[in-house]
Write a structure and sequence with these properties.
binds adenosine-5'-triphosphate; about 40% helix; 3-stranded antiparallel sheet; ABC transporter ATP-binding protein; about 260 residues; alpha/beta
Amino acid sequence: MSVLKVNNLSKNFGGIKAVTEVSLNIEKGEIIGLIGPNGAGKTTLFNLLTGIYTPTSGEIIYDLDKKAYTKDLKPHKITHYGIARTFQNIRLFQNMTVLDNVLMGFHSGLKYSIVSTFFRLPSYYKTEKSTYDEALELLIKFNLLDKKNELAKNLSYGDQRRLEIARALAAKPKILLLDEPAAGMNPKETKELNFLIQWIRETFDLTIILIEHDMSLVMNICERIFVFDYGHLVASGTPLEIQRNERVIKAYLGEE
Ligand code: ATP
């Protein structure tokens, strides 16, 4: 069953063609990898999928509750449709506690990010007991419970990345977009992330799309991989197919 279709999607920034005529189809429950050199358009695609950017042309259709989304939904509406994401540069509420960060996730909608950047909201703010318990459960699952009262900024890099994923899951998404989740992680943390992503998919019954430069992580956990180069989708297939694709080797894998 398809959960996301992208048809002839393009995004230009003035003369820069960041994404050009991209079409793809993602099935429920898949773990999808987006790879390609720096500047290939991967993050721009995430920004289009989450409504941060408006497409120059083309369309995005989510088929989650049979509600189609095309051009003009705001990011917080997209969150309500069941799309959550993390960012390449971690965007936690650095001066809030670990627990408060997850609680903010339950209130989903990026508009809260803006509010909380300026006003520190305490954890009891409009938080029902069940939400509080669910937040604690997420922290247990992510091995962060003993750090629940620490400020996000004092966590290790790997813990911050995992907290960002936990917060995204609090919004109860159906599709989770992870932008370079292994960036800055050490090999041990990356290995744990490998298991964590697969565990998340099984436990939360999710479709996961990740942008990642760590090829062993991508090849290990993704069922299908889409390869981008200069804004174009240049190849797609299973990890084995991608590893054997001449064009991909030349444009990207060969550089490794
Ligand atoms: P990386 O792996 O380095 O994150 P990427 O594949 O995610 O790269 P994008 O960040 O999507 O690539 O960038 C694609 C192109 O679009 C680049 O040339 C970039 O400079 C340009 N671009 C992205 N966002 C903007 C913007 N807001 N304004 C102007 N140009 C932009």
